[in-house]
Amino acid sequence: MDWRDQRAGCSLFIHELSISLLGIIHSVPRNKRSLSLEITDRDKNFRDVLMHLYEWHAMLERWYREGMAGDTPSMPAPGYKWRNLKELNYQIWMNYQEVSLSQAIRKLELSHERVMALIQNHTEEEIMTKKHYKWVKTSNLYSYFAANTVNHYIWAIQRCTEIAKKL
């Protein structure tokens, strides 16, 4: 199988995950979709989960844009280190408390399309070769794309399934 087929298969899988995620949300009666669980966890409702994904897409897009321009992206975000992910994720949660679920869905759909376009713009070699781009250091583009699509979508599906069961 050549890369075009692998990339198409990977893109299809990512697309199927996004459809599954939105399907979980749409399986809940409309009047319950914006409700929040009475829990101490950060992500209490569907909007929280979707905005988390959206913001991580936005960070990936910034890393990519800055890195491809020859700069060293501030990762994961300006003012944060990887060891501070709990604080960063809490700040993301705080930033989007006034966003509606319908706005969250639309924002995620648009950011998903942009990230998928980034993936489609590369060859297998560019995506899979470690150190191909200086900004990814000892890693490859695949690790960044997978972390911000497949891995995050699987987490989101699990979290939204939990939320849907408890509403």
From TrEMBL:
Stored InterPro entries: DinB/YfiT-like, DUF1706
UniProt cross-references to Pfam families, sorted A to Z: DUF1706
Coiled-coil portions: none
Domain of life: Bacteria
Entry protein name: ClbS/DfsB family four-helix bundle protein
Organism for this UniProt entry: Paenibacillus barcinonensis
UniProt lineage: Bacteria, Bacillati, Bacillota, Bacilli, Bacillales
